[in-house]
Amino acid sequence: MANHNPPVNAFQKGNQFYKAAISGRKKIFDTPEDLWKAACTYFEHCTDDLVEVWKSKHGKLVVDYKMRPMSWRGLYLYLGVGDLKYYKTLEDFSEIVSRITAVIYVHNFSCAATGILDGRMISATL
Question: Which stretches of the chain are DSSP H helices?
Answer without folding.
Answer: 18-23, 32-47, 72-79, 85-89, 91-113, 121-125
